[in-house]
Amino acid sequence: MRLKQVGAVVAALSLGAALVACGPNTNGNSGSGKASSSSAFSKTLSGDLKTYGYNPSDEVGKSRSDYATGELKGVKVTMDTSNFDTQKFAAQAAAGQVPDLIQADRNVIATLADKKLIMPMDQCYALWGVKPTDRYYPSTIADVTYQGHVYAVPQFFQASALLVDKRVLKKAGVSLDQLDTSKPDQLVAAAKRMTKAEGGKPTVIGFAPDVPGSTSTWFTVFGGRINDGSGKPTLDDPKNVKALSWLKKLTDAQGGYAKNKSLLDSMDVFGAKNQYVKDQVGVQVWAQWYVNVLAEYKSDVDIEAVPIKTLDGKTLAMAGGSALAIPTKSGNPSAACAWAIKVASPEAWQQASDARQQTVTKTKAINTGLFTGSPVADQANRKQYVKPSGDADFDQVINTYYDILPQNRSTGSSAVGQSITDSLNNAVIVALSGDKTPQQALAQAQSAAMRAWDQSNAGKKG
Questions:
Q1: What keywords tag this UniProt record (predicted)?
Q2: Which CATH code fits 160-316+416-436?
Q3: Can you spell out the DSSP letters for 242-298?
Q4: CA 394 to CA 380: how far, in whole Å?
Q5: Which helix (H) or strand (E) holds 400?
Q6: Crossing angle between the packed helical segments 417-433 and 238-252, to the nearest 10 degrees
Q7: For 105-163, how does the pLDDT look when each residue is reduced to its tens digit (9 = 90+)?
């Protein structure tokens, strides 16, 4: 659940607007050497490497960065560990003082590529003998591919599934087989049975679909998509309208968007009185990382995971994540390339797996696995460290999140990815609140996204 995302939608900055004035001809760079995608990369490494956005704040991040830095002999690595910010990067690009390597959300990689602010990494991969779609899930590579070129190294793929409170289901007389997303009308009926209210206000939400955060997943369930293969927005696709109409029906059956949001916002999501401890929700859409939160309260929850399926019954795994990219004006692209490849390598993930297991052993927690974005690393971690925990519920949940990984699917990259997301989020709120019909809301969102598309280089090329 992205419970705080809703309030940020209106204030969200359009990446295209922030970067439109910052092209590849900015003078200067952050160090010695010139960055051209045709001759930028070498295994001869030296000098300084400045990163921006990578934060080694836990044992997983630190062990990987320590490994990568240790592999780059003769290179001094300094980190700006603050989160990647489009305005800050735009200012750096305008001033010709960009970092050598950035970590950003995969959703913005195609936009940065469209603005020529980052360089293709195909030759970087080739230099180090890495085939992107072999090392990483195809969906994560699709997320960072623009006009046939790979522009980043992906990290993490923590797919979403339905996380069920079995006590709520039992009390309502709902069975797990009624939580089949390929049968949406059945799901609405089950949600309505699980929902409870007092004084006109819900005290238990039967089914929380995580919208607007997971809207693109629900569009995919219904056969829709937010952009086509070229990246052009397709928000008003009839299948998307059908999906949003269903989400409105689902929400209305449980008291309406405003009342649901009020209860969701009040939940102690990360605390000892979270919604699964207090039985405040029957089903929620959650990415895999939330299992780590609930593991701390394993004796107080009764949970199970159910895969999300498309209308034709196929299991669906979708997730966002971050990626490492090299600015066009990087002063040390060779070191940036090497560090990015090393920090997301099987060897780095092995270091992370070892470090995570040490933490698990020390805290007597459950090892819920690492979902790295790399099938090789995921399988190695699962085989070595993900063992039966003694808690059947958590073992089932962990195994479900692993089992859905082969069905990974990308939302698709777009030169206006952030604009599409912002427009979609606004449309969902407007539609679920009843201010516009789903068709009207998505038509308006499509118009806004198309304005951004028409200003992009990809859009200008048709």
A1: Signal
A2: 3.40.190.10
A3: HHHHHHHHHHHTTT-HHHHHHHHHHS-TTSTT-TTTTT-EEEEEEETTHHHHHHTTG
A4: 20
A5: helix 392-403
A6: 40
A7: 999 999 999 999 999 999 999 999 999 999 999 999 999 999 999 999 999 999 999 99
Place of tokens 């009624």: 178
Same CATH topology for 12-157+321-352 and 160-316+416-436: the answer is: yes
Start-to-end CA span in the chain (Å): 36
Tell me the one-letter amino acid at 112. L
* Each residue's pLDDT tens digit, 211-238: 999 999 999 999 999 999 999 999 999 9
Nearest in space to 53 (alpha carbons), one of 97, 100, 110: 100
Please tell me the CATH code under which domain 12-157+321-352 is placed.
Answer: 3.40.190.10
Burial class (CB within 10 angstroms; exposed 0-12, middle 13-18, buried 19+) of 36: exposed
- Phi-psi label, residue 255: left if phi above 0, alpha if psi -120 to 50, beta otherwise: left
Burial state string for 79-97 with b = 16 or more CB within 10 A and e = fewer than 16 = bbeeebebeebbebbeeee
pLDDT-derived band at 194 (thresholds 50, 70, 90) equals very high
Question: What does the alpha-carbon distance between residue 55 and residue 36 come to, in Å, rounded to a whole number?
Answer: 27
Q: How far apart are CA 205 and CA 409, in angstroms?
A: 28
Structure tokens at 276: 């699964």
Report how far residue 115's alpha carbon sits from residue 104's, in angstroms, rounded to the nearest whole number: 15
Q: What are the structure tokens assigned to 348, written together?
A: 């780095």
